[in-house]
Amino acid sequence: MMGIERTLIIVKPGAVVRGLVGEVLSRLERKGLKIVGLKMMKMTREKAEELYSVHKGKHFYEELINYITSAPVVIGVVEGDDAIHVVRRMIGPTNPKEAPPGTIRGDYGLSITQNIIHASDSKESADREIKIFFDEEELCSYSRADELWL
Ligand code: CMP
Q1: For the whole prediction, is pTM greater than 0.90?
Q2: The total number of structural domains that make up the chain
Q3: What is the distance between the alpha carbons of residues 39 and 76, in angstroms, rounded to a whole number?
């Protein structure tokens, strides 16, 4: 038991316009992860720059900011045992061409710039990224009915 963690996921513009929001969220739910926060928004350039501040100056930075602000995104906080690591494993490597079948990036795309989901890569990132998009009172605590079986 690693302990209960919360992590941020962003279903990116490509997935929203392709109608894949439900499929992506449903994979996380089926795994046993609990959605404790969820919203749709058109990300502002300001929020995008805050989220991706570590990538500023990299060759793909402008493309990345343009993509994430190009259409609405669905942003969620998911909770579960060792959730940060588990969600990263489920989404797969950054480059969808390298992401194995069975992972979200592996199953739904080809483009690294336009990959369809983001998830926090560490506890520090999760804490920082959740705060960019959610106030504490927007996150819900509840029990899943199947919790004892997960
Ligand atoms: P994400 O997990 O949202 O975090 C940063 C994003 O930058 C990443 O997904 C990719 O979409 C993008 N990215 C990372 N590396 C590259 C790269 N080499 N070329 C283009 N985009 C990249």
Answers
A1: yes
A2: 1
A3: 7
Whether 53 is in the pocket of ligand 1, judged by its Cβ within 6 Å, is no
* Lookup result for tokens 């588990």: 86
- Give per-residue burial for 95-130: e unless 16+ CB within 10 Å, then b: ebeebeeebbbbbbbeebebbbbbbbbeeebbebbb
Residue numbers of the domain that contains 120 = 4-136
Residues paired with residue 10 on neighbouring β-strands, in sequence order: 75, 118
Nearest by Cα to 78 from 20, 24, 17, 146? 24
Ligand 1 atom, smallest distance to 119 CA: 2
100-to-19, 27, 92 alpha-carbon distances in Å: 22, 16, 7
In a domain, 118, yes or no: yes
With respect to residue 87, please indicate whether it lies within any of the assigned structural domains.
Answer: yes
- CATH number of the domain residue 104 falls in: 3.30.70.141
Q: Tens digit of pLDDT for each residue in 81-135?
A: 999 999 999 999 999 999 999 999 999 999 999 999 999 999 999 999 999 999 9
- Find the 137 Cα to ligand 1 centroid distance in Å: 30
